[in-house]
Structure to design on (985 residues):
């Protein structure tokens, strides 16, 4: 058996001069002493390898840029650039500062100033040991503090040839295993295995802090098609190659799903008892409270949750507890960090677990800098952007239901007659109207607590949509599973497994988001 | 670090001189973006965020020789001016040599004359800051208009994209594109029957390439008007309905579904509709005529030249529901022994004969979708589904018109477009994703009536 030593992703030496030059820009960004200036830098170096039945392919991309930021008490101004020579940056910062100075202030606008937190402030709150253990004792505003994601098998040392060979083997393995589940090789009209590794490095500097992080983001996707029918699996997280292990039994399960989809029935639309699997419950949590608990949406007057938080109205039953947590550094006990995790967000705020909904009662929302200031609520590490070239919004990280006390076997007995939904197919929020939409690829029928082997797709043969009024859905939760739903012993993992997911807020800004949680049993939900 | 230490000419020369390299495509894009987020602070309209972004993207698609007969290697790589050139090229070539593709060749012919396409708004190209100011003023006036609804927020995104394309065959092409995005959200509140306050909102978005096709005032008026009706809603009764969808939905559905008319689908054994087959099986309604048109003025995917250096001209794909062409780029054309043709362009659909009022009367009950919550469409199966965010129910038996919200709609292009009827007025639609050069463009009927669509609530 191979044993690995856990290492941490280092701060790249070639970024040291750049980090030093950013510090020189701060005085320009705080030309007016009442301004809050900061700099965010990001470099994402990605390699995507893929193999299908006919070819292998490599995509190699690097993008890097810096965002100069001035918050003048009214507006957050940003100047983003990928021209990173010191002289060019200084000239741009001066021009930017003049732009902010010449921007008119609306007559009746309220000035809300902001002061950067010191290290003492930052460390006075409860932070995960994975964060605090990397902060040197006595860190000051000038101390460069680096956070590196731990990994076992270094994805940077895997060669292109090795990676492509492994993916080709996976494609071949699917063909070899197909007859074992009742599929002929010719049934597999399209097979694709893809692995992506991204080294995500960022630096955040303000007058009190100089921090950096390096995250190794790795994922693997396998897609099987037979005509228009499609089954897929994806694994991944933040860490090393250990995060993308796909076993032979995983492939057999995937092939079995494809076979079942070829003979799937069409669902008769209606209200059903349904057991949502972990990833589908992640989508439910994300779309429920979730999106309407994003403070920028609240500050824009677009979220009902803000009103309900203030009124204290109950919006779900005792099982309805939802958390957002960018500090999931051990994904379901898997030894690597969850997909939506990081040490600090893109506005330099440290990751912390946050309860958004506590047994049906709404708590304060997730925030980015400006929305926290506008609403007067505590900041959280949810200021995220699609890339350095995109703007910041309040975005979710890993969003999930708290764990329950049931095993999967117990939930199947409680389900009795209904469906199990394991594979999500998107979702959508309705923050003011409180509607909700959760897409499901297909449903597996259960009778007398046992799988019948029948699979159902939507009424028109596509995805199934669960829709309804969010509080109604959250009041229809019957029970939840433990994190380790297969075991009767108490959970060892602190957080549930979060799958590889994404979120496209306001229809146009894409960010990574973890998606997971326990199994959740719901009654009388609309499926169509 | 970070100093630009090589030029585009050096990149092209290095690739040309390298004996391992068979061919290459190099592109450079300079992007300038201006963005503003607007919201209310008490009674005052304020700018929450104001952004300016300048970005340069250099990409190379490099084809390398392999010893295996009929195969070559290739890689798509983004290069960085601040990193040493030779290091980047060498790493790319080494990685490309590990890949394995059926060989194909870039087109030998260099177009003598490249047509001019209207792809960038001249005013934006000349003075982006001036346009930001002008549109901000229009938004301020829209927000200041007296309404029964409450303005919540708006966003304004503008960008100029200047592109250069170079092929190892000697082709050089320069183009420009502008993109505009505006969104507005209004809410409406009132006291409900039980005395409790109730409220809902409506969010509307619009993409455009040029200022003349950007109906800012109409967008704000329509958003406010629909927000005002957002509380007068009922859930739909479950059943199968005649459903009217608008051009935004048609843009999404058709731009996805025509991937089944591509040579790449044929080669990769993905769902493919071949020449001579029906586009919609057994269609009986308005038989669709569909053209891929890269020449559409200010279309989201208007272009003169493809990434592979092929002239792009209008290509009729479907004539009265019969597939008459397969889209093939040079790569898949070579693989399938087909002549390469047009693969870029806007979906242009011939109009129908009925006005929107006529469509609303074609069934005893017609549901007109004003907005889906999140339309999810699978281009391979042609299926689509969504929650209904807001719709109107036309009950032609009682003459009553009511608003609907909620419920799941589930459809299939192959089934529910069979009896489709298209409206007689055509509109232009655009949609862009931030990381894609290619937009989704549409010029066609503003509305389509679909039949027998499943809705459950």
């Amino acid at each position: 058996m191979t044993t690995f030593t856990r290492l941490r992703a280092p701060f790249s030496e070639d970024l040291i001069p750049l980090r030093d030059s950013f510090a020189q820009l701060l005085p320009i960004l705080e030309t007016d002493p009442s301004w809050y200036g900061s700099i965010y830098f990001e470099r994402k170096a990605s390699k995507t390898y893929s193999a299908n039945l006919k070819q292998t392919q490599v995509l190699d991309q690097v993008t890097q840029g810096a965002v100069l930021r001035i918050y003048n008490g009214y507006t957050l101004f940003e100047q983003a650039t990928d021209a990173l020579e010191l002289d060019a940056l200084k000239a741009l910062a001066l021009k930017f500062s003049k732009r902010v100075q010449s921007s008119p202030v609306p007559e009746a606008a309220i000035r809300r100033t902001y002061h950067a937190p010191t290290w003492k402030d930052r460390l006075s709150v409860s932070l995960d040991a994975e964060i605090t253990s990397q902060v040197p004792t006595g860190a000051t505003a000038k101390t460069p503090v680096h956070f590196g994601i731990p990994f076992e098998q270094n994805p940077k040392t895997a060669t292109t040839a090795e990676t492509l060979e492994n993916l080709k083997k996976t494609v071949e393995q699917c063909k070899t295993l197909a007859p074992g589940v009742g599929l002929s090789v010719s049934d597999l009209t399209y097979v694709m295995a893809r692995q992506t590794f991204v080294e995500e490095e960022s630096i955040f500097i303000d007058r009190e802090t100089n921090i950096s992080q390096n995250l190794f983001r790795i994922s693997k996707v396998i897609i099987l098609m037979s005509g228009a029918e499609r089954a897929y699996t994806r694994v991944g997280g933040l860490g090393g190659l250990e995060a993308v292990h796909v076993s032979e039994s995983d492939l057999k399960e995937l092939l079995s799903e494809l076979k079942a989809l070829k003979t799937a029935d069409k669902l008769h639309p209606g209200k059903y008892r349904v057991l949502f699997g972990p990833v589908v419950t992640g989508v439910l949590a994300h779309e429920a409270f979730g999106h309407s608990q994003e403070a920028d949406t609240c500050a824009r007057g677009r979220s009902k949750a803000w009103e309900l938080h203030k009124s204290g109205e109950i919006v779900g039953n005792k099982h309805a507890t939802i958390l957002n947590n960018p500090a999931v550094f051990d994904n379901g006990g898997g030894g690597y960090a969850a997909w939506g995790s990081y040490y600090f967000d893109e506005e330099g705020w440290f990751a912390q677990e946050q309860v958004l909904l506590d047994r049906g009662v709404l708590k304060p929302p997730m925030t980015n800098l400006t929305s926290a200031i506008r609403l007067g609520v505590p900041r959280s590490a949810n200021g995220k952007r699609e890339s350095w070239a995109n703007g910041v919004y309040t975005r979710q990280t890993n969003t999930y239901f708290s764990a329950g006390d049931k095993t999967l076997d117990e939930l199947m007995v409680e389900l009795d007659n209904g469906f199990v939904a394991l594979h999500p197919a998107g979702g959508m929020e309705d923050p003011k109207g409180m509607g909700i939409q959760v897409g499901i690829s297909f449903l597996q029928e259960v009778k007398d607590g046992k799988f019948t082997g029948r699979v159902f797709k939507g009424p028109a043969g596509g995805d199934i949509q669960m829709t309804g009024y969010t509080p109604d859905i959250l009041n229809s939760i019957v029970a939840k599973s433990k994190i380790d739903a297969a075991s009767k012993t108490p959970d060892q993992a602190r957080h549930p497994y979060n799958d590889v997911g994404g979120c496209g807020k306001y229809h146009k800004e894409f960010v990574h988001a973890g998606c997971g949680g326990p199994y959740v049993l719901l009654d009388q939900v609309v499926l169509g | 670090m970070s100093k630009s230490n090589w030029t585009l000419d050096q990149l092209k020369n290095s690739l040309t001189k390298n004996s391992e390299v068979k061919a290459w495509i190099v592109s450079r894009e300079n992007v300038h973006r201006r963005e503003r987020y607007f919201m209310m602070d008490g009674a005052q309209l304020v700018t929450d965020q104001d952004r300016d972004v300048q970005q340069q993207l250099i990409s190379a698609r490099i084809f390398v020789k392999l010893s295996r007969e009929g195969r070559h290697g290739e890689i798509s790589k983004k290069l960085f001016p601040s990193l040493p050139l030779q290091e980047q090229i060498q790493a790319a070539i080494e990685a490309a040599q590990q890949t394995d593709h059926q060989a194909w060749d870039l087109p030998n012919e260099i177009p003598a004359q490249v047509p001019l396409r209207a792809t960038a708004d001249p005013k934006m190209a000349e003075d982006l800051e001036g346009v930001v100011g002008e549109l901000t003023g229009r938004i301020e006036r829209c927000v200041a208009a007296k309404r029964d609804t409450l303005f919540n927020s708006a966003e304004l995104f503008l960008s100029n994209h200047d592109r250069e394309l170079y092929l190892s065959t000697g082709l050089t092409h320069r183009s420009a594109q502008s993109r505009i995005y505006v969104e507005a959200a209004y809410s409406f509140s009132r006291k409900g029957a039980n005395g409790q306050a109730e409220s809902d909102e409506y969010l509307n978005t619009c993409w455009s390439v040029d200022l003349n096709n950007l109906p800012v005032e109409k967008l704000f008026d329509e958003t406010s008007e629909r927000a005002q009706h957002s509380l007068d809603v009922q859930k739909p009764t479950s059943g199968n309905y005649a459903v009217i969808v608008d051009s935004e939905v048609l843009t999404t559905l058709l731009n996805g579904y025509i991937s089944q008319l591509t040579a790449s689908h044929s080669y990769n054994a993905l769902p493919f509709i071949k020449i001579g087959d029906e586009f919609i099986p057994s269609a009986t309604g308005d038989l669709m005529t569909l053209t891929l048109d890269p020449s559409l003025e200010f279309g989201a995917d208007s272009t003169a030249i493809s990434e592979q250096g092929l002239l792009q001209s209008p290509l009729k794909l479907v004539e009265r529901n019969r597939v008459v062409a397969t889209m093939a780029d040079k790569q898949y054309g070579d693989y399938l022994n087909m002549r390469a043709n047009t693969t870029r362009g806007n979906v242009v659909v011939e109009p129908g004969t009925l006005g929107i009022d006529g469509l609303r009367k074609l069934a005893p009950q017609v549901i007109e979708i004003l907005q889906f919550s999140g339309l999810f469409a699978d281009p391979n199966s042609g299926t689509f589904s969504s929650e209904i965010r807001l719709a109107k129910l036309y009950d032609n038996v009682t003459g009553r018109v009511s608003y609907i919200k909620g419920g799941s709609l589930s459809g299939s292009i192959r089934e529910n477009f069979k009896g489709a009827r298209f409206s007689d007025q055509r509109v232009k639609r655009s949609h862009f994703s931030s990381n894609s050069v290619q937009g989704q463009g549409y010029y066609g009927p503003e509305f389509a009536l679909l039949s027998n669509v499943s809705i459950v609530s």
Summary: Chain B has a mean pLDDT of 96. Residues 93 and 197 of chain B are 65 Å apart (CA to CA). Residues 233-456 of chain B form one domain.
